[in-house]
Automatic annotation (TrEMBL):
Domain Metallo-beta-lactamase: 15-207
Any single GO BP term: glutathione metabolic process
Keyword annotations from UniProtKB, A to Z: Hydrolase, Metal-binding
Annotated InterPro entries: Metallo-B-lactamas, Mito_Persulfide_Diox, POD-like_MBL-fold, RibonucZ/Hydroxyglut_hydro
Top-rank lineage group of the source organism: Bacteria
GO molecular function: hydrolase activity; metal ion binding; sulfur dioxygenase activity
Official protein name in the record: Glyoxylase-like metal-dependent hydrolase (Beta-lactamase superfamily II)
Pfam families linked to this entry: Lactamase_B
Length: 289
């Protein structure tokens, strides 16, 4: 069995983990980049590529060849750098086919149907549920893990799992479920899919929000650690208890600061849409959410 190498990059502004995954035994040194970040300053509406350039520098230093640029879901808290990375490094941008439901939900809100393809064709590839694929000589598959959003998915690469916001580290718990189509019930069921993996599998999270004064950002816990230590989802928690607490905590929760620019750009793989007189724009629907 090929063993995946995993290098994590933490963006402290959005608390996002980006991962580069590759195998030392693959002669072509092919890799995947998972959940990248395009830096975006909301007050000035300006982008920069500091975070993405760190990925590019690492890939080039390691002489890796990007085969896949993967998204676990349409992020609401940061803009993806997928399109920028593809322009610099190549590779295929891919996501679950469930993005089509996200586009159906959000494009009417933003009125961006003219430059957001309804068939998801801004992405190079849409995965089916449980589809198997490869990253060099690494075996990978995708499973549907909804709850945070209806389209959340997990990439299982050999004995590692990249879960996005499906679950967080044990002392943090799990992602909110109050976005359109989100479901605390589905979130609980998705955690049980992860807990069905072998205990030694490593779960890499999409974000980390360390409890104040306890530790610095971390990115991984084993399945066994999640099963017995996750504050919200450990195996001693029944579904009704989890759902009640999740819904109570999500009630009245503030909208993520970057939700509006992030979702409309991420449905286009991180592009801000058709330019008018050389300028791209973000639409901010008023009194709609």
């Amino acid at each position: 069995m090929a063993a995946p190498n995993v290098r994590g990059f933490f963006d402290p502004v959005t608390a996002t983990w980006t991962y580069v995954v590759w195998s030392d035994t693959d002669s072509l040194k092919r890799c995947a980049v998972i959940d990248s970040v395009l830096d975006y300053d909301m007050p000035s509406s300006r982008t920069s590529t500091v975070s993405a350039d760190a990925i590019i520098n690492f890939v080039n230093q390691k002489q890796l060849q990007v085969e896949w640029i993967l998204e676990t879901h349409i992020h609401a808290d940061h803009v993806t750098a997928a399109r920028y990375l593809k322009g610099k490094l190549g590779g295929k941008i891919a996501i679950s086919k469930h993005i089509l439901g996200i586009i159906t939900t959000w494009v009417p809100i933003f009125q961006t149907g003219d430059d957001t393809p309804a068939d998801g064709s801004d992405f190079d590839y849409l995965f089916d549920n449980d589809e198997e694929f490869t990253i060099g000589d690494l075996k990978a598959r995708i499973i549907h893990t909804p709850g945070h959003t209806p389209a959340d998915t997990t990439y299982i690469i050999e004995e590692t799992a990249f879960v996005g916001d499906t679950i967080f580290l044990p002392d943090v718990g799990s992602g909110r479920c109050d976005f359109p189509g989100g479901s605390a019930e589905d979130s609980y069921d998705s955690s049980r899919k992860l807990f069905a993996l072998p205990d030694h599998y490593r779960i890499y999270v999409g974000h980390d929000y360390p409890p104040a004064g306890t530790r610095g950002p971390q990115c991984m816990a084993t399945v066994n650690e999640q099963k017995f230590k996750n504050d919200r989802l450990h195996i001693g928690i029944d579904k009704n208890t989890f759902v009640s607490r999740r819904k109570a905590d999500d009630t009245g929760k503030a909208v993520p600061a970057l939700l509006l620019p992030s979702i409309q750009a991420n449905m286009r793989t991180g592009d801000f849409g058709t330019a008018v007189n050389g300028t791209q724009y973000v639409k901010l629907p008023v009194n709609k959410l």
